[in-house]
Here is the input.
Amino acid sequence: MSKELTPVDLPYDLIKTSAFSGLVPKELAPYVKPAMAEFRNEMAAELGLPDYANMDKGELPSRLNGNVGGGMTKKMVAFAEAVLAWHYKNRKLISE
Here is the structure.
């Protein structure tokens, strides 16, 4: 059974390419859409919209839909900051 990749396992060059050029590595591309859909549904559930995947979003106020997207963005930025800080810290430790 193969181990799933985590940000800690990914080589710095892969993260650098993905983060700064906007490109997703080919081997990860098939996972982007389902991962984002799952993340969106989890965020909606946290906001009290439990069946978001099957919900008619045309009936939702834009404020609720915006809260879902805004919450996702906030968490993705926090995740990216953690990954970048981890790599920065490790580069500093190696260079010292």
